[in-house]
Amino acid sequence: MSAYERVKQWNTFARIWHIYDAKWQNPIESAKVISKHLQGQHKPIYHPLNDCGDHVIVMNSRHIALPGYEWKKRAYFHHTGYPGGVSWTLAWQLHEIDPTLVMKKAVRWELPRSLIKFRLMARLHIFPDQEVPEDLLKNVSSQIRQLRPVPRTLASYSDKEVDEFPKINDFPKDYILK
Q1: What is the rounded CA–CA span in Å between residue 19 and residue 136?
Q2: How many C-beta neighbours within 10 Å does residue 137 have?
Q3: Where residue 138 sits, what CATH number does that domain have?
């Protein structure tokens, strides 16, 4: 095997580090994309019995967005293992306790039920804000594209952009809103 072929093989089987910005993203839809990268389904060498998945860093999990009334209606199950240890926690309560848990539970749900699930979850690194440790950022070589665009806030527009925005009508300066 030539040196070129050996390097190609190393690159094929190497674990790549991806970064994903979860700001304003639906965690259920994002979990489908993240789980494919954790399992290695995006690679041409994927096989269900082969552990060829990559590492994924998820940042801004504090700023995820669930659609509609999902914050109030989605409940997460937990059992302590003891009799009477069953509890159901609403998504907004779980998110207040730990801002990474909703995303973590969504990804765990998408992974296959097998013994490898724990190894796959160990490769998932979730952070509530943009502060990611520098030693992890050094490993990142790819970015997973966001599923939906992040809207701009009104405060992010400059005065020039506000003045140039088309208006339906201009109120006189002495106009008083009631």
Answers
A1: 10
A2: 12
A3: 3.90.1180.10
**Domain housing 101:** 3-146
What does the alpha-carbon distance between residue 161 and residue 20 come to, in Å, rounded to a whole number?
A: 30
For residue 18, which amino acid is it? H
Provide the pairing of β-strand 55-59 with 124-126: parallel
| Residue 1 pLDDT greater than 80, yes or no | no
Question: Which strand ranges, in their side-by-side order, compose the sheet holding 17-21?
Answer: 124-126, 55-59, 17-21, 140-143
Residue 160 lies in a domain: no
Q: pLDDT tens-digit profile of 86-131?
A: 999 999 999 999 999 999 999 999 999 988 999 999 999 999 999 9
- 20's tokens: 């994903």
Chain-centre distance for alpha carbon 168? 39
Please list the alpha-helical segments (H only) found in the chain.
3-13, 27-39, 70-73, 91-97, 101-110, 117-122, 134-137, 159-164
C-alpha angle 154-130-98 in degrees, rounded to nearest 5: 100
Average pLDDT of the chain to the nearest whole number? 93
